[in-house]
């Protein structure tokens, strides 16, 4: 079960990145170009947020049940903190991704409440940029491009 969930989690990270690369330029164009808020802008925002949510669910499944790395780290958390790889997967990766998820949802909520179209795009641009940067920084780039099932 671990390889399957990890493989799906791995593939989904690329979907998150692709959607981020789509949503961010659209948000900045809308904000700076004062474009009208469109249904496609709303949908891509929802797809980006949903992909981050799905990543969180898979990550929680890995973190609290399937990952032998995290399980080993919790057996001796002090030792794990001195090991860069164990520390990354036991603490840094989940904390950064949780923060990114919070930023995505703050941006989505604030965009819904913005009084005008430029404000909607501005909220998405700012909060999703912060989330996207955290995702980039917290992503395990040492993992294979695609999983080995």
Describe this structure in words.
With 149 residues, the chain is mainly α. The protein has one domain (2-138). Helices cover 83% and strands 0% of the residues. Helix 1 (2-32) packs antiparallel against helix 2 and helix 3 crosses helix 5 (84-113). The protein is elongated and about 50 Å long.
Give short descriptive properties of this protein.
149 residues; mainly alpha
Terminal CA distance:
11 Å
Mean pLDDT: 93
The outline comes out as: elongated
Overall radius of gyration: 17 Å
Let me know the number of strands: 0
Unreliable residue runs: none
Number of domains: 1
In short:
The protein is mainly α.
Q: How are the SSEs placed, and which strands pair?
A:
Layout: H1 2-32, H2 39-66, H3 68-75, H4 77-81, H5 84-113, H6 117-138
